[in-house]
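Practice problem: predict the structure.
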Amino acid sequence: MAVVFAAATLVFGIASPANAGTSGVRETAKCGNLSNGEVCIIGPDTGRTGTYRTEYCKSSGSGDVSVQLGYQKAYDGSDYSDLSARITDSPLYGVWAGSCTSYSRHLNVSSDNCVRGIMKWQAYTYISKWHC
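Answer:
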């Protein structure tokens, strides 16, 4: 299991679209690929207050993992290296190959805010690309 989660902190790349439900608000996702899955932050278009969802999908690997999910919010121009993640109220979620879990939170977001997803597994932290 430690081989799968090899780095203490990873920053991920490209954005992929996600479709909104019936709310009429367009959602976008900023995701990052892990060796056995994907962690995403999904929310309204840039600069909108609304519900943001951190999602982790485990596509491969043996056994269950217990993860915590949360988010991190910053203003453009912030010192991104000194931000605290909001993960303390997240329960532990069990995830196995072929399953997904998510954590949703309503956030007040202005046009100069950025939000990213956080996933913690044991002593490791994984972060998605900033949703700005």
